[in-house]
């Protein structure tokens, strides 16, 4: 499974690239807003083009998703083409992110403009990452339209299930793959009982139907979800910086390090020219 960083913060991107295990970056309007507000709070002026250009240069050879912001076919196509034309020449790594359904109506009016945009951009060989996926059928449709990545939102479907049951929870709280029992009934959204199950179903369908699009698990909230989406068949997980930074940690790892460090004999340290702080 590939590890992407879910961030538009150039400092977080630099730090994560330095780990040597980063495969790509995903941004969205909220992440860009967060990153820009941070820079502005330090008194820095931001030039959109050069900020994004710097990210793309840093990530050469790794896909970077940039999202369209309109909600109608014509403007989303225009924006997708603009993003690609303006930025892909910098490092040839732009993916245009398109919502599966751009409708703002919470009653979920059906709107196929997202799908039409994916088809149009994909036919023009512009790689598309289809975002805001909450059902396997949305994923299948986006893949059929040509999306190279489909992005199911793992954490947000878990939020939705808990919200509909009026449960109290924190953003990083663990939510089990097998779902949550409310009395005798398991919470579900049209058969989906958790974000991880959503990934698993999409993965099974894509295998059975021989779909080539990659499954990019988004809205990851904790390190355990990384393991679970990997087991469920995600090709990519896009991980926020504060979760990425915790992947290597375990109490027993630190305890083991303490003991090994304490036990180093002077001959060992001398041979390596190392000064040990115990
Ligand atoms: O990649 C999608 C992601 O940015 C959404 O994450 O935690 O706001 O649901 P979250």
Description:
There is one protein chain. The strands form two sheets. This protein has an eight-stranded parallel beta barrel, surrounded by five helices. It has a two-stranded antiparallel ribbon with strand order 7-8. The model has no long low-confidence stretch (mean pLDDT 96). It folds into two domains: 2-247, TIM Barrel (Alpha-Beta Barrel); 251-278, no CATH class. The radius of gyration is 21 Å and the shape is globular. With 278 residues, it is α/β, with parallel strands linked by helices. It is built from twelve helices and ten strands. It is 47% helix and 14% strand. α5 (113-123) links the parallel β4 and β5. The protein binds SN-glycerol-3-phosphate. SN-glycerol-3-phosphate is lined by residues 6, 26, 28, 31, 153, 155-156, 218-219, 238.
Named CATH topology of the largest domain: TIM Barrel
The multimeric state of the shown protein is single chain
Strand content: 5-15%
Biggest pleated sheet: 8 strands, parallel, barrel
Indicate the radius of gyration in whole angstroms. 21 Å
Second-tier CATH architecture of the largest domain: Alpha-Beta Barrel
The counted number of beta strands is 10
